[in-house]
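ARCHIVE CARD
Drawer: 12
Card no.: 0347
Subject: one protein chain, sequence and derived structure
Cross-reference: see card 0346
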Amino acid sequence: MNLESQVNNFNNYYVYSNLIRNGSIVIKTDTISLDNWSNHYYALFSILQDGIELKELHQLFITVQFRTGETVDLTITDFLFNLMLWYPIIALGRDYIQPRHLMFKKFTNSRDIKKFIDKYFIIPNRKDVHVKVLNNTIAHTLYPFLELDEFSLFLANTLNLEDDIELMQASPEFDSLIHCDMSDVPIEQVKNKGMEVVKKAINIILDSKNIMGHEHCLKNAFAAGEGINKKQYRENHYNIGTKPDGQGSIYHEIINQSYITGGLNNYTNQFIDCATARVAQIISKKNVGESGGFSRILGLNNIDTFLNPDPNYKCQTRNLIPITISNSTILNRMKNRTFRYVPEGIEFELDPDDESLVGKTLYFRSPITCASYARGTGICHACYGRSLANINSNINTGRIATEIVTEQYTQMRLSAKHLLESLIKTITWSDSFNMFFNIEVNNISLSESAFNDDVNPIEDYVLRIREDEVMLENDDDFFKHLFYSSPDNSVNDVPIYNVYVTDINIINIRTGEEYLINSVEEDGSCVKMFISQDLKSLIRTLINKNKEEYLEADELNIPLRLLLDKNLFSIKIQNNDLGKALDVFTDLINKKDVTKTFTIPDLVGRLQTATINGNINVDSIHLEVILANQVRNINDRLEKPDWNRPNESYEILTLNEALTDNPSPVVSLLYQKLAKVLYYPLTYKKIKPSIFDPFFMRKPKKFLNVNHEVYDLNEPKLKPGYSPVVFFDKNGKRERPKNMKEFLRQFKKEEDMTELED
């Protein structure tokens, strides 16, 4: 039976009916236009609908001839795929299809498609073509890819355990990986070791045809790098491993099997695994609301950020921001930004493919120090990045920055069930630690093998704890008092995880040698060593026996011989969980003790690191837009610094402070605590406009329907000392209340008037 007898709906095949009848066809790319592109696409689509299962159909080739005369033979599926990618080039009509526009890969994923569209459509046209045209064209390009779902049943992308069993029988190595044992692996390395197992297994799957005679069902997915979450695949097939406990730590027991090799076959495993579901529910219930609330106030503070309407205007800022391009990720997030190699040098546009810039400190124009934005005339395109400014020229610049950041954090928390995993912080111990101590999971005890009765007797050593180095997990000094002085066992129920030290000393009383014992996490913070119940009881006993001596010395020397066979300290194994990603970001911009400790360059760098560690994909420019609205004149919080002056001083406000002291009275009124805003003295000095102003007008339509005079926003037409806040009596007559205190009582309860009275 020939192909024509099976694939014969020729009315649907356009010019490609000749391909079915004759077995060949020549298509000149110059003949494909916007007017007939759909005819080409749906003709090929119809052919595949009618005969995709036929081997003869996939053996047909279409000869594609380019304007230059070059030709290439493509299968129907390859030609259809390229035709879909050519749509934006054809639709825009600014270029013609060339051989360089061919994409021919055995395995293609979404990243490849994005790179193609970026390279051949967005980058060449974004400066000259309106962003709406670009967006609409891309939308029309991507829609046909959705229609390919029509062939999903034929493609049969699925998972079956039969392939796993067959591959295990054919490959002893794959069998051992499926049954891997993590019992002897340090808990902080379990996740990484598990992913190493997955990597080895994937390599075997990619070679499955040579091993068992046919391809494993997951071969194509792994080859393309699409469709499978490797972390979930690890848990399902190889080893579940560690699980977060939802308290910033992990469970100290691992699930040393996968869901298919043993599953949750005991109560401990069931409890630990179910904890992930509990944590996910808590995150979705509690933290998503927090993300939404944070998004609201962040958006409010940035809502009035806009670009200078003149694309050719370049401000004369004298304050560039030094940023170190520490790796390729930072390089990509600074793409197309204006920079200098030296502060007073020539300006360049950063090429994200220029790897020679990695490791260098460059000086960037930034919205934070844009003199135009500080004057109130919008961020100049040079400080924003001309390429991105062209794309975002008709978009609320501040709002888009907020949405890009907060949307990802919120989505992560909505997807917590699928994203939760253990990302244990690495702990580095001092050199002396291993000389004297053992650590098992999170419990620290004395190492008996460290001592020798003849050469290094244990009687020569004491453990020294100083009173001023003993800290509390909470702020209740009552516990600390009882910890030292309780004469009985009345405080045995004081929590173990309440009292801790970060440093201890081992002293050789015979030689006088001292050994410092401590540890630091990868971020440089000290690890808390929580004093165990056993050690706590021993300390109280020693203090009660030698109270006068201790009170005089403010330290306690404990003979090491008394510490044998005792659990001395416990540590919390810290986990970089989903909740912490947003917490780190919010702390950086909205916590006084954190925000105000940084300079602008340092804070930009910290925000970049925080978003990278939190898997938030955001260009640095959007982080800088957010910060730009929190940087104020050091002498006047309602004004921005004068960036035309070199080495200009500034103050970085927290987000809450920036909203309270926002130069627009309307923004502050929309923030919180309305009554306090009304009697806050600074409110009556605020004169800057806001996009929300019409909502506070008595007749907004009258205002919006007239042609307004354009004037410099730095020269407001309000008279000096004239408040923008106006009160009206019940008849609508403008008035100034003689007694503000009485007026404000309607906004504030009597018992809350203390601050006002003062």
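Annotation on reverse: The first strand starts at residue 24 and ends at 28. DSSP finds 35 helices and 23 strands in the chain.
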